[in-house]
Design a protein that fits this description.
- By secondary structure, this protein is of the alpha/beta class.
- Helix 1 packs across helix 7, helix 3 packs across helix 4 and helix 8 packs across helix 9.
- It has a nine-stranded mixed sheet with strand order 6-4-1-10-11-12-13-14-15, with helices on both faces. The protein has a four-stranded mixed sheet with strand order 3-2-8-9. Strands 5-7 form a two-stranded parallel sheet.
């Protein structure tokens, strides 16, 4: 049985490291170029797998350079692809990411490719029904909604990484047990002026078990319907912030399988995200459990 299964984005990233973001219409020498797997759902699964959870991705791969890389990359990190199909004649979801060292920023340009939506077969449906957590991110929406319904019918917790304001996401939001939006999403979706107000509004509208609004280097806001509480961002020297949010969500899913309460899960996930930022690559940079526990202890948290 897979503890965590996911339906959502799996992206072929090209990372370009730069001293600073380039000026338009100039030539700039970079400090390095590398290929990496990305995407909220798939990268979250990698993070959870590296922490020790049994994880599986449910989706399609294109039979192109990107698709072959992405399938091998998930398997390299212990994420099962046995519920996936490889389709010929399509282009993978891909992106180009500039990593500017001077401001520790990342700028993303992406092409969603043309893969058709995932069709859940009986094996995939069974894996969802038997999991502890289903991760979704608003991509591959029809399959994500179907998977969330199966999860709800079988008592499986749904974690929604709400980072993008995609068309139709109101179909998915009511199924979230753990609704974890970025601050940008939360403010835009609710029309509120503060993260605290947005967290309350999301909780009142969709009735999840908890809402966690992530705020990057400022930590975030946790709302459980009774209290609204801040959780910290743990300070680290940032080398690459790309994928930090994806890793946070994967860590939170792992924390759910360990029975952590929501605040403890937030602090734990914040530590995982921080450690990821000290290394290049969303997936390569995700830490193992021993490293996270040692880091938490160094910062005064005993887990």
């Amino acid at each position: 049985m897979m503890q965590i299964v996911g339906v959502g984005a799996n992206v072929y990233d090209t990372l370009i490291a730069l001293e600073k973001y380039p000026t338009e219409d100039t030539k700039t020498r970079c400090e390095g170029i590398r290929k990496s797997g990305g995407g909220p759902c798939a990268t979250g699964l990698v993070a959870a797998s590296k922490l020790g959870a049994e994880c599986a991705y449910i989706g399609n791969f294109a039979d192109d350079e990107g698709g072959r890389f992405l399938k091998a990359d998930l398997e390299r990190f212990g994420v099962s692809t046995k519920y996936c199909r490889t389709l010929s004649g399509y282009a993978s979801f891909s992106s180009c990411i500039w990593l500017a060292a001077d401001r520790a920023s990342r700028t993303v340009v992406f092409d969603k490719g043309d893969l058709p939506g995932t069709e859940l077969d009986e094996n995939a449906k069974a894996a969802i029904a038997c999991a502890a957590v289903l991760m979704v991110d608003g991509n591959d929406l029809d399959a994500a909604v179907e998977a969330a319904k199966i999860a709800r019918e079988n008592g499986v917790k749904v974690l929604y990484d709400a980072g993008g304001l995609y068309a139709g996401i109101e179909r998915l939001l009511p199924y979230a047990d753990y609704l974890i939006p970025s601050e940008e999403f939360a403010l835009a979706h609710t029309g509120k002026k503060t993260a605290e107000e947005a967290a309350k509004a999301l909780f009142e509208t969709y009735s999840p078990a908890v809402v966690v609004v992530t705020q990057g280097k400022r930590g975030g806001i946790l709302c459980d319907g009774r209290t609204v509480r801040e959780y910290p961002a743990l300070p680290v020297p940032v080398l690459d912030s790309n994928g930090a949010g994806d890793v946070f969500h994967g860590a939170f899913a792992f924390a759910v399988t360990r029975g952590y309460d929501p605040y403890r899960a937030c602090v734990f996930s914040s530590a995982v995200s921080a450690l990821k930022c000290t290394k290049v690559g969303a997936r390569d940079g995700a830490p193992d459990l021993d490293s996270v526990n040692a880091f938490l202890k160094e910062n005064g948290y005993e887990f």
